[in-house]
Write a structure and sequence with these properties.
Distance between the termini: 21 Å
Shape: globular
Number of domains: 1
Number of helices: 1
Largest sheet: 2 strands, parallel
Radius of gyration: 9 Å
Strand content: 15-25%
Strand order of the largest sheet: 1-4
Structural class: alpha+beta
Helix content: 25-40%
């Protein structure tokens, strides 16, 4: 995980109801707050 990816994961933890728009498929693997899936919009 890069620093930029870690910052985006942290922002999804802080903000309520986030959806991450990205082209990076690694976010299917990353988890937040005790193994919760990160809601992503992948094209």
């Amino acid at each position: 995980m890069s620093l930029a990816d870690a910052c985006q994961v942290r922002m999804t933890e802080i903000l309520s109801g986030p959806a991450l728009l990205t082209t990076d498929a690694d976010f299917r693997i990353y988890r937040r707050n005790s193994r919760q899936v990160i809601p992503c919009l992948l094209p």
